[in-house]
Amino acid sequence: MANDKGLIVSFGEMLIDFVPTVSGVSLAEAPGFLNAPGGAPANVAIAVSRLGGNASFVGKLGDDEFGHMLAGILKENNVSGEGIMFDQGARTALAFVTLRADGEREFMFYRNPSADMLLMPEELNLELIKSAKVFHYGSISLIVEPCRSAHLKAMEVAKEAGALLSYDPNLRLPLWPSAEEAREQIMSIWDKAEVIKVSDVELEFLTGNPNIDDESALSLWHSNLKLLLVTLGEKGCRYYTKSFRGYVEAFRVTAVDTTGAGDSFVGALLAKIVDDQSVLENEQRLREVLKFANACGAITTTKKGAIPALPNESEVLALINGA
Q: What pTM was computed for the model?
């Protein structure tokens, strides 16, 4: 079935998360692991699609069983795979994820190099990227060449074609050579994005300021920005635009696994603004959209794994109307 909604193209990595069958133990103590598809940009694409939006993923997978499994999962979830490449020589990335007793995570990555890191600018499906109304990306694709150049090229092509640029840095410190390099590269493309979402932890990392407040957030403001969001986990989110700022509280749920909650939040936001960006200039409507996005994020924490937990519209409305 053709989707007539504006296209949201998500660029970056897709990988397999190995999640322990038992929460609250170290990787070494885990009795077994479940393989769960992951990777923030792919999660966002599926989050959009699950809410009835029009999503496409651009990235590179290994020409291996896991890579074809991930491509299949995108297809099953009605995410266009026109932008997917397969690498003959490199494996699909893997991550072992420890679930602490409080539902938060720690990561150990296997990427040396993985297929996603080897995406080259000349392999990009530029026609697909040019057709995007929203182009969304993270920072993991900035860590090494040639993927970094592919990322910059895709961003430039999308921008020239009139797409709204959306950025969620999605800090994964273990993947970077150093904290300084992470900060520098994440900030190197900061002033290009029009919508930026950071978590409270990322805000502290990028500003060096332990206070999660308006002053700290606004130190990251730049003139091209239309919306800056700071997500506060179970405390909700703060929003900043040129004309107004405020806070939207979270929904109370029992969190089992926070994986993918931020991606679910971003997917919901993008799905709601792709065909009407005037929402970004209307505080009342923006607050409604952020309430919806908070509900999406909350639901995603109530099940293990990111993709299985991403909600559809009726699940979100049930939470909002029941609250």
A: 0.96
